[in-house]
Amino acid sequence: MARDVSDTTPIGARSELVEWIASGEKPRESWRLGTEHEKVPFYRADLSPVPYDGGRGIRALLDGMQERTGWAPIMEDGHPIGLADDGGGGAISLEPGGQFELSGAPLANLHDTARETAQHLADVKAVGEQLGIGFLTLGMSPLWTRGQTPVMPKARYRIMTNYMPKVGSLGLDMMYRTSTVQVNMDYASEADMVKKLRVSLALQPIATAIFANSPFTDGKPNGYLSMRSNIWLDTDRDRTGMMAFAFEEGFGYERYVDWALDVPMYFVKRDSTYHDVSGASFRDLFAGRLAQLPGERATRSDWANHVSTLFPEVRLKRYLEMRGADVGNLEHIVALSAFWTGLLYDDTALDGAWELVKAWSAEQRQQLRAEVPRQALKATIAGRSVQDVARDALALSRAGLQRRACLDEAGRDETRHLVYAEEIVASGRTQAERLLERYHGAWGGLVKPAFDENVF
């Protein structure tokens, strides 16, 4: 998230929280997709991590990107912590360990997404080369320990760093050592949101399997194909997971709001100060009885910021965030967006996807979520392999993209952006498995070659 929301309008009733989410509804012609991806920077000379300060640090990288793009700096306590394209809607932000993130603008189609991502990568590579910095296309930092990983100067991250060990054993690894790719999708109504949320929650482990790309930690194989996904299984369980309640009768905006209200807060921001209220109840802030800030009442900013600290496999804000995939190269990033666009933005594909998953029980979905980080395409659900389910989901997505009929300047539709994922599923070998083959073969039991071969 590039920057926290600033809207001091007081919240007077629970209904306003529901209305805030409902205000995201858009007619089909206004639907857009926004692609976000993170990447781990490193010094090419010695493969060491990139700190914030110094003449060739993250701050210098941000300064170079500002000069190259003209985007406005986002500041905190005198430090640039991101950049914003106030005209186009995109932004650059820093994750806790220096992961460099592009939050893409809301775009009409996958061709635009591919162009945006390619342009960003060209910019960041050009600036990075001047500083001797490269960027990994892996879902987890493969070499450095958590203690060797730098820390970015953002107050919300300091609060989260102190809180994470209280609520799970792997939250700090999530913060400092993982990299993801996400796509944000619109909905037309509450019913449309519910259907899309249920389908995407059920299929999120399928996407995790297809895009598994984090098999190394601390310089060796970690026993998983998506260690990033496994880490989320023991990261602050109050705010993570498969949200089984979303499949219950009557689920909608109100039920999600009630869940969010019961998730403990991390912070409350007043002016430029982040107040650590970790573990406190938003309901107390809403009622003006928060012990850490007596008399303070919730504002729209507080609600928007709180919702941004919820981390289920699919997150509902004023759009839906698909959160299950490891980052990878350019084709990998755009293919993730293609997968979900084909499924969720075509009614026939969405209906087909619901038929594919509707009979799965909450227990089956949770078991799948637990197995996929280690087994990926070889995991099973309801007597079928994930590879088979992925093949069906990809076929639905391809047909949905064909019906969208969004053509590029060469007359090609969006299905070309799905080919990367289709080839993985057809082969039955994830990118993580291919990396492990390299590790045990040509790389000679070392992960350092990844810093040459798996870079943007």
UniProtKB/TrEMBL annotation:
Q: Write the Enzyme Commission number(s) for this entry.
A: 6.3.2.2
Q: Which UniProt keywords apply?
A: ATP-binding, Disulfide bond, Glutathione biosynthesis, Ligase, Nucleotide-binding, Transit peptide
Pathway field of the UniProt record reads:
Sulfur metabolism; glutathione biosynthesis; glutathione from L-cysteine and L-glutamate: step 1/2
Under which main EC class is this enzyme filed?
Answer: ligase
GO MF, one example: glutamate-cysteine ligase activity
InterPro entries documented for this protein: GCL_bact_plant, GCS2, Gln_synth/guanido_kin_cat_dom, Glut_cys_lig_pln_type
Please give the superkingdom of this protein's source: Bacteria
The reaction(s) catalysed by this protein are: L-cysteine + L-glutamate + ATP = gamma-L-glutamyl-L-cysteine + ADP + phosphate + H(+)
Assembly description: Homodimer or monomer when oxidized or reduced, respectively.
Q: What does this protein do?
A: Catalyzes the synthesis of gamma-glutamylcysteine (gamma-GC).
Name the family: Belongs to the glutamate--cysteine ligase type 2 family. EgtA subfamily. Belongs to the carboxylate-amine ligase family. Glutamate--cysteine ligase type 2 subfamily.
Recorded protein name is Glutamate--cysteine ligase
Supply the source organism for this entry.
Microvirga splendida
